[in-house]
Each structure stands twice: as C-alpha cells, then as structure tokens.
C-alpha cells in the first residue's frame, strides 16, 4: 500500500518555515542592532559580560541551524509527494484490489470486511443494493473479535442470482452475551479492476479504476492485468 503526502499539507509546511525564516531574520537584525548599540554605550568601567554575549549569539545560531533542518524536512516531504504519484503511475494497466465503501458484484461474488471490538454471540450482516434495500441477510458462524472478511455469492434471500455490475454495501449488527450492541468499525467493500489513470489534482494521489476515483492508500493488492487476446479475421476474395 502506498502512502501519499498531500501537496496542500506540503505548501502549509513550507509557508510556516518561510514565515519562521522571516521572523528570525527580523529578530536577528534587531538583536545585532541592539548589541551594537549596547557595545557603543557600555560603561568602560563595567563592560558587558562577554560570556553572556556569547550565549546570546549561540542561541541565535542554534535557531538558524534549526531552520536549515526544517528546509531538509520540507525537501523530504516534497520527495514523498512525488513518490506517491510515481507509485500510482506504476499501477496503470495493472489489476488492483482496493478497499471502498461499497463492493461491485463481479463474477457472481462480492467481498466485504469489518472489525468487531469483541466476540459476539449474535451476528447479522445485511447486504444492501445501491438504493439501500436489503437484498440478503447473512448470519456468519465466525463471531470472533477483530477483523472479518465475508464473500457473498451474489444471491438474494429468495435464492435468485443477481446480475454482475450491481453496487452493494453492508450493515453489520453484532451483540454480546449481555444483549448489548458490539461496536463494529472499518466496514468496507472491495473493488477490483484495472487502473487506467492517476490523479493528484486534489492534493491526494488517487487511482482511477473503472471510472471510480480511489485513494491510493486504499489499494491492498496488485497483480498483472490479464492479457487480452484477439481472434484474427480471415478475408476471402
């Protein structure tokens, strides 16, 4: 899985660094003016403590060194942003699996996942179509705590096979031995398809799969796309 750094965040970081530079530059100039004035007007019989002056200069130098470090960090942020985009480009033409809010029925099946805060004794998974209607209710045997994955066979409650291409989501209801509801999180569907483009115009690197825009962070698997074969045509005179 790739990690992309938002260019908007990068700009914000650079702005803060530049503002800090300007502030330090102004303060440094003011400090030197005050120091020069102090040296011109010091009492010859009680001169300024050179140790204290050295400490002040050292502090200002330390701040400048910190700004140099910030510049290096900003450069690293920029490199990370480019890496996210280049990694997305490397996915173009490849078959990927990504986590999304819904799952598209493909080859007669769709896969979903969720996480339970604790084990349950009652677990019900409702599969809903794009209109929000429940088409199938499942009661998985595995009711452990932690991550769960469920693959639906594409049939409704009446046993009828639904057509490929439909978009579905799930609602998970889990309860413990005391009858109280168990917290369920990370409810996701899975989308599979070939990456056709990469887009980072919003500041986040996204891949385009079957016309859908998906954050590159949500890509969980990559395989080489299946080769397409064409049947040669024979022309007779």
Structural commentary:
The chain has 237 residues and is α+β, with helices and mostly antiparallel strands. It has 2 domains: 7-89; 96-224, Immunoglobulin-like (Sandwich). The chain is 31% helix and 31% strand. It contains 2 helices and 11 strands, in the order ααβββββββββββ. Strands 1, 3, 6, 8, 9, 10 and 11 form a 7-stranded antiparallel beta sheet that branches. A 4-stranded antiparallel beta sheet has the order 2-7-4-5, with no helix packed on it. Helix 1 runs antiparallel to helix 2 (50-89). The protein is elongated and about 105 Å long. Mean pLDDT is 78; it is low at 1-10.
Structural class: alpha+beta
Number of strands: 11
Order of helices and strands: HHEEEEEEEEEEE
Which residue ranges are poorly predicted, with pLDDT under 50 across at least 5 consecutive positions?
1-10
Helix content: 25-40%
Number of self-contained structural domains: 2
Task: Characterize the biggest β-sheet.
Answer: 7 strands, antiparallel
CATH topology of the largest domain: Immunoglobulin-like
Mean pLDDT: 78
Level-1 CATH class name of the largest domain = Mainly Beta
Number of helices: 2
**What Rg is obtained from the alpha carbons, in whole angstroms?**
30 Å
Mind sketching the topology for me?
Layout: H1 7-40, H2 50-89, E1 94-100, E2 103-104, E3 110-116, E4 122-128, E5 134-138, E6 146-152, E7 167-175, E8 184-199, E9 206-209, E10 212-215, E11 219-224
Antiparallel strand pairs: 1-8, 1-11, 2-7, 3-6, 3-8, 4-5, 4-7, 8-9, 9-10
């Amino acid at each position: 899985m790739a990690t992309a750094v938002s260019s908007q965040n990068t700009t914000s970081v650079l702005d803060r660094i530049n503002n800090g530079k300007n502030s330090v530059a102004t303060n440094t100039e003011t400090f030197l003016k005050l120091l020069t004035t102090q040296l011109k007007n010091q009492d010859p019989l009680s001169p300024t403590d050179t140790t204290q002056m050295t400490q002040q200069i050292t502090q200002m130098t330390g701040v400048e060194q910190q700004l140099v470090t910030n510049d290096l960090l900003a450069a690293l942020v920029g490199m990370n942003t480019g890496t996210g985009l280049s990694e997305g480009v490397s996915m173009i033409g490849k078959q990927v699996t990504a986590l999304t809010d819904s799952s598209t029925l493909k080859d007669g099946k769709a896969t979903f996942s969720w996480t339970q805060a604790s084990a349950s004794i009652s677990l019900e998974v409702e599969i809903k179509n794009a209109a929000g209607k429940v088409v199938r209710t499942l009661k998985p045997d595995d009711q452990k705590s932690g991550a769960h994955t469920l693959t639906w066979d594409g049939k409704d409650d009446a046993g009828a096979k639904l057509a490929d291409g439909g978009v579905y989501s799930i609602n998970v209801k889990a309860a413990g031995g005391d009858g109280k509801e168990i917290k369920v999180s990370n409810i996701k569907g899975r989308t599979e398809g070939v990456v056709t483009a990469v887009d980072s115009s919003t500041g986040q690197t996204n891949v385009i799969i079957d016309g859908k825009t998906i954050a590159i962070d949500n890509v969980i698997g990559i395989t080489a796309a299946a080769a397409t074969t064409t049947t040669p045509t024979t022309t007779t005179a």
